UniProtKB/TrEMBL annotation:
This is AAA family ATPase. Residues 507-525 have a biased composition (Low complexity). Pfam families: HATPase_c_4, SLFN_AlbA_2. Residues 14-129 form the Schlafen AlbA-2 domain. Residues 505-532 are annotated as: Disordered. Signal peptide: none annotated. The lineage of its organism: Bacteria, Bacillati, Bacillota, Bacilli, Bacillales. Coiled coil: none annotated.
Amino acid sequence: MDAKDLLRIIEDGENAELECKAAKGGLPKDVWETYSAFANTNGGIILLGVEQKGQEFFPVDVDAKKLVKDFWDGINNPQRISKNILVDRNVEIIEVDGKEIVKIYVPRASREDKPIYIGHNPFTGTYRRNYEGDYKCTKEEVQRMIADQSPIPQDSKVLPNYGLNDLNMESVRSYRNRFSSLKPDHPWNGLELKEFLYKIGALGRLRETNEEGLTLAGLLMFGEERSITEYLPQYFLEYREKSSDVPGERWTDRIISSDGTWSGNLYDFYFKVIRRLTDDLNIPFQMEGLFRKDDTRVHAALREALVNTLAHADYYGQRGIVVEKEKMLFRFSNPGVLRIPLQQALKGGISDPRNPTIFKMFMLIGLGERAGSGIENIHLAWKEQHWTAPELIEEFQPDRTILTLRTTSLLPQESVDFLKAVLGKHYKFLTNDEVLILVTAHQENYVTNTRLQSLTDKKSDEISKLLSGLVEKGYLEPNGQGRGTKYTLTEMFHQKSIGNSRYNRISSGPNVNNSGPNAANSGPNENEQTKDHEKVLLDISELARKKKRLNPSEMDEIILNLCAIKPLTLKELSQLLNRQMDPLRKKYISRLLKEGKLEPLYPEQINHPKQAYMTRSLFTNQH
């Protein structure tokens, strides 16, 4: 890295992957908290010799060589930190404007090394990173990291007090029928039940005592829900389907493992859900010779996504498995973060499933590809359809992995037409990458550097240049700082949408696709109501747009009045109030939610991409 690259990082400011410290008085004590936090999350960069003034960062005079020596002394001291995961090249001195800055790159620690902690006690010295900074991990978070260290998979554990009476025998018979149909000549077909279950990993023995019992994989795959939750109280499976875009409308189809009408195990959940995921896919059939082939790469990708969700979940974690289907997306969410770095998971080729026995059981009946190829196959399927690239993210507190598959075109004509309408003759001067960025911001309400890395073959620094260029042109507005910054379309796009109901993002509310099949049915009364809402929203928020400073109680009242008209996303509120999204969320929305004055439109998934907020009274009236 040279001085130019470092200056760009400094200009971006602090974020979840960057921490700047002035270090004027020597090596800061809290550098170890940041080291722990980066190592236990997704890695990051620590800059020593950079001072923050307001929202800007400046190099300052420090003794860089002494800082480097003190840092190496500390990180190699087991009394100070549990483990050094750095090598020499991770620490360097870079000169910027005549001043020396110490750059420390902290990689993401392997699961075998986590947790990285300060002192002798992981339960008091382990940190992680979020957009607020470093935070001390809870006891449960540390326990999950320690559990993932083990080379012995969690699902191979033998449960000596669990046996055949805890299984749903109809599930077992169905599995054996599928196995024998797929592999009619396999020698396992002639085995007795117990021996068959032992071969596939559902049954095991403790070698020390020769005591027999179900494995955790066997209990999860074929068990009765009551037996599973006796051992794993947090266990929960849920499928939710919504066929309408109407805000606030409840799910049109829902399956949960605890309703008592079926076994509640993973095997039966898979087959109940996969049919619903694929039964109305609007994918052209293919031909194999003279025969029609209804099963496409997209069908296979959805099977892969569902198997991966079940095989990678941490069943000791919180909030269970949730699979969602909406008009234009599929979402797969499971407890537990990835056991390999996120970027490696996206590239494919390497896999570290948390439950390899469950994965093996699915593979034995022809479900699931070889380890490491799942995400790659899903990407290929979505690329083949020219759909928006899959999005894979990790969340913490609690730990979750979320895969979102959108069936929207990579460059939807609606969004391209919108850009052309706003930019006019300037549209033709945009590069293909710039069009993709603006379209993504329009379709998904915002765009980030990380998201664009999954959509393009460009590196983070190249994307940063593109984003900065669009900000300079006045097309994007940054909210937050650093590579975690969310970029939204600027006011010029909002004004165009206000003047043209075809492109109106605020009037449609979250989840409404104005180009959908029912769009033509919108009568004049509905259009008039939309215009009335636009005017009311603009009138209510006029004071906030005109005044940069408002009394917090005044702003509270304006927000609550706006959200009483209709559910509004953070982006819509930001545009109406002329305030940046990140400060608006931290200072007002989060507090109003805690006080119970606002309610999220999607309370069961706080980070839903279409999350919107409404006043308590509106929420009560709609439900």
